Amino acid sequence: MIDLARCDVVFLSFDEPNADAHFEDIRTAVPRVQRVHGVKGFDAAHRRVGAVATSEHVIVIDADNVLLDPDFLSSCFDVAPRDLGRVFSFSARNVINGLRYGNGGLKIWPRTTLLTLQTHENAANELGAIDFCWTVPYYQVTRPVTEADVVGSDYQAFRAGFREGVKLNLADGQTAYAAYPDLPRAEALTLHIGPSNMERLKVWCTIGADVERGDWAIFGARLGCVMTALEGFDIEKVSDYGWTDYFWKDRIAPKYADSNVRAAKSRDLLAQINGDLGLDLTEMDAEASQRFKSTFRSQRAYGAMRIN
Q1: Residue 307: inside a domain, yes or no?
Q2: Does residue 67 sit in the same domain as residue 206?
Q3: What contacts 159, CB < 8 A, 6 or more positions away?
Q4: Which distant-in-sequence residues (6+ apart) come within 8 Å of 272 by Cβ?
Q5: Among candidates 139, 172, 77, which has minimal Cα distance to 305?
Q6: 226 and 181, same structural domain?
Q7: Do both 230 and 117 map to the same domain?
């Protein structure tokens, strides 16, 4: 058992527009929460979390998260002894499209793992430069403990969609065309990412028109998918917020601020995804998005993740 009431709770923020409000909500519910803010780099920020914490296990909550069940942080979490060295990644419910999976969700880290990370900007290998889950031993927990509120600004919504549009093209830290260079792109993608990631990719690229700024997230997901699957995008850039900030300010915001221009480009991206990747996606308006979310039950991953 991990006694969560005895674990340090750390709120991790960088530039999220809703970070302060979310922190105050969590601090009201969980007064012991600490905050690490503005540390550049995913690896450096998580190492800082390990440095400020003192408990054997540390609960980390990303700044774009809202707690659904604060009482969870004072409960006990039953863990098999063989898994005590893993990071427990809980599902987050995404406000845009209703997906529930580990993206952005609350995590319970062994403090020793936080202190010895070598990922992202400090990666020991190419896999670690993209995401934690390829080199850190993760254990997926389906229970949603938080809601991922990533629509605090146009940029936040776009960035959330773009990152998932890129990352959902990957398996074992590789793109489909790198894993299967001799196959057609559509066949390679289906074979490479499997049904769960394919389902999530399709939802990110179509659902959310009923949410303010949801169109920015959909646009971002489509663009990230096209750039990764079809244009040879350097996938390590997706974990570099400095590059993403530049990309937004230099390439995206000036050109696509107008909703009509953005919608036209988004339709072009959808046609490209359908034509070149065979995803067979359909434009979903606000009513269709609401109806989809009211009935959709996504595939869920549970248990220890294999790492390379």
Answers
A1: no
A2: no
A3: 150, 220, 244, 248
A4: 226, 230
A5: 139
A6: yes
A7: no
Q: Which residue type is seen at 44?
A: A
Q: Of 106, 46, 25, 37, which is closest to residue 73 (Cα–Cα)?
A: 106
Helices (H), 130-235: 154-167, 176-179, 185-204, 214-230
Strands (E), the chain: 2-3, 8-13, 34-37, 57-62, 65-67, 76-77, 87-94, 100-101, 107-110, 138-148, 303-304
Q: What is the pLDDT of residues 138-194, one digit of tens each?
A: 899 988 999 999 999 999 999 999 999 999 999 988 999 999 999 999 999 999 999
DSSP assigned state of 171? B
Cα gap 158→34, rounded to integer Å: 28
Using left for φ > 0, alpha for ψ between -120 and 50, and beta otherwise, residue 120 falls in left
Q: How many domains does the chain have?
A: 2
What CATH number is given to the structural domain containing 144? 3.90.550.10
Q: Are residues 231 and 209 in the same domain?
A: yes
85 DSSP assignment: T
Q: On the CB side of 291, how many CA atoms lie within 13 Å of its CA?
A: 5
Q: How far apart are CA 1 and CA 203, in angstroms?
A: 36
| 230 within a domain of the structure (yes/no) | yes
Contact 92, 144 (CB under 8 A): yes
Could you list the residue range(s) of the whole structural domain that residue 44 is in?
Answer: 2-149
Q: Is 214 contained in some domain? A: yes
Q: Tens digit of pLDDT for each residue in 96-149? A: 999 999 888 999 999 999 999 987 787 777 767 677 777 888 899 988 999 999
In a domain, residue 308? The reply is no
Contact of 100 with 54, CB cutoff 8 Å: no
